[in-house]
Amino acid sequence: MSHTTDLDTLIVCPTCDLVYRAPRVASREKAVCVRCGTVLVAPRRKAGKQLVALALTVLILIVAASVFPFLTIGAGGVRHDASILDTAFAFSGGLSILAVAVLFFIVIIPALRVMLLIYVLVPIIRDRPPAPYAKSAFRLSERLIPWSMAEIFALGCAVALVKLSDLAEVLFGPAAWLFAALVVVVVASDRLMCRYSIWASLKD
Questions:
Q1: Which of 28, 44, 65, 184 meets the CB 3.0–4.6 Å disulfide criterion with 178?
Q2: Rounded distance between C-alpha atoms, residue 67 and residue 194, angstroms
């Protein structure tokens, strides 16, 4: 048996790095790390279609949350609406690097990650061969997870707005609720995804 085949039969716990020989797990069953309890394999029927639906939902929410007003600030009888794009462009004068960072971490990278996931999963759920460079696309989507900060931005804004409410009248706009929905959908997508099953579907 070749070394490649040997490696293909192994699975590593992403939390504690314990190595296992990949078990056969039936649909709706789970393989759990005995050391730390992390779920290693959790296949589900029609999970691919559900993941694509959730990814499309995330993409729509990101685009909508970027253009709709995130909040309205009122003080002295004057109110001002601000969206995510307005905030980023406000830095473009003297803090162009910060503007680029806001757009990349909150809008572009999360959107790119879900588009890569859709690219990888659509051929799989249609029982077709993997798309060209599907392995690289899925690997990149996984590496982008730490840099996808849309939901972190939403939570950070919620904390900041609580403190700001003492100084001015602050009202949440449609984008704030879209970001709240985005957090829920992202968590649901992550819990549904079985990465081992996706890698197994991408084998030549």
A1: 65
A2: 32
